[in-house]
């Protein structure tokens, strides 16, 4: 059995850790609320804009590709994957889940996959695994702006337009709620048109100016918007995962403190019992010695 002093030192150490994890949980909760509000505020616009963009791109009766970013290539030779992870750890399975989804996609693609990583964790794991990382972005603000997204979108668009990749995917964590976050791998380029539009269903609308002019103006910006929304979803998911992980760590620390306190009490009781036995044994030995002298 460990000494009483060793147990007390361990209890003190665990209590200090629990105070740190509790503070980290509160900080993560505050950041999570801000990130959640930003994510939900822009989600409806991002989803609707993507829906409108896909509709415009799927004009019935068109005989040509309206924009180079819509070109569906017959042969997929190379793929670009934008991988969004966190810069820091201590966020539970957040990074593990998205990395597993990304690596599963790379394995199933059976094509050369280039990576653009956002976050140190994804960059480090990808480089350690020998993946082809052509660009990496770290230290982005916890409140990202479109200025942060610009260089990332520019690389993706240029790689696609130059023909160095034939498909662009983005791997991120979709924020469902504080408890649930789902890893997603979504096709970014070329934009997939709705199946019902390809089949000729739905109404036909007239545009002023033409769909080509509209797409040339808004498609690159809407591509940036999708990356921006994916980053917001990942940031909210990261803070949620960190808050839950720190809460679990705090609760585990409290359980460990209770367990160690019980062990400490048993050790103290054992010491008291041993001392009492020593006293009783000494008293009995003294009594017998005095009786023998008489």
What does this structure look like?
This protein is α/β, with parallel strands linked by helices. It has 2 domains: 4-20 and 248-293, ATP synthase, gamma subunit, helix hairpin domain (Helix Hairpins), CATH 1.10.287.80; 27-243, ATP synthase, F1 complex, gamma subunit (Pyruvate Kinase, Chain: A, domain 1, 3-Layer(aba) Sandwich). Helices cover 62% and strands 12% of the residues. The chain has a 5-stranded mixed β-sheet with strand order 3-2-1-4-5, sandwiched between helices. Helix 3 links the parallel strand 2 (113-118) and strand 3 (132-137). Helix 1 (4-57) runs antiparallel to helix 6 (211-293). The model has no long low-confidence stretch (mean pLDDT 85).
Which secondary structure elements does this structure contain, and how are they paired or packed?
Layout: H1 4-57, E1 79-84, H2 94-109, E2 113-118, H3 120-128, E3 132-137, H4 146-161, E4 167-175, E5 181-189, H5 195-198, H6 211-293
Parallel strand pairs: 1-2, 1-4, 2-3
Antiparallel strand pairs: 4-5
Helix pairs in contact: 1-6, 4-6
In short:
This protein has 294 residues and is of the alpha/beta class. 62% of the residues lie in helices and 12% in strands.
**How many structural domains are formed by the residues?**
2
- Could you tell me the CATH topology label of the largest domain: Pyruvate Kinase, Chain: A, domain 1
Q: Structural class, from helix and strand content?
A: alpha/beta
Query: What is the second-level CATH architecture of the largest domain?
Result: 3-Layer(aba) Sandwich
């Amino acid at each position: 059995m460990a000494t009483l002093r060793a147990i007390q030192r361990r209890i003190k150490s665990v209590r200090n850790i629990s105070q740190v994890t509790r503070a980290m949980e509160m900080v993560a909760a505050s950041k999570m609320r801000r990130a959640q509000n930003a994510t939900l505020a822009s989600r409806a616009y991002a989803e609707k804009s993507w829906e409108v963009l896909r509709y415009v791109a799927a004009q019935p009766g068109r005989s040509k590709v309206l924009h180079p970013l819509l070109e569906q290539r017959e042969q997929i030779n190379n793929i670009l994957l934008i991988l969004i992870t966190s810069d820091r750890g201590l966020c539970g399975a957040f990074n593990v889940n998205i990395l597993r989804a990304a690596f599963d996609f790379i394995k199933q693609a059976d094509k050369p996959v280039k990576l653009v990583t956002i976050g140190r964790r994804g960059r480090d794991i990808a480089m350690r695994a020998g993946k082809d990382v052509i660009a990496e972005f770290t230290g982005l603000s916890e409140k990202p702006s479109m200025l942060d997204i610009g260089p990332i979108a520019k690389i993706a668009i240029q790689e696609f337009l130059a023909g160095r990749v034939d498909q662009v995917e983005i791997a991120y964590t979709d924020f469902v709620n504080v408890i649930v976050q789902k890893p997603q791998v979504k096709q970014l380029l070329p934009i997939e048109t709705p199946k019902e539009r390809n089949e000729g269903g739905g109404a036909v609308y007239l545009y002023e100016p033409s769909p080509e002019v509209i797409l040339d103006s808004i498609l690159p910006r809407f591509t940036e918007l999708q990356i921006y929304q994916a980053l917001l979803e990942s940031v909210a998911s990261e803070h949620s995962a960190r808050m839950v992980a720190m809460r679990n760590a705090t609760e585990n620390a409290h359980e460990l403190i209770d367990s160690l306190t019980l062990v400490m009490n048993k050790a103290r009781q054992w010491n008291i019992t041993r001392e009492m036995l020593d006293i009783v044994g000494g008293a009995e030995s003294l009594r017998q010695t005095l009786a023998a002298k008489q």
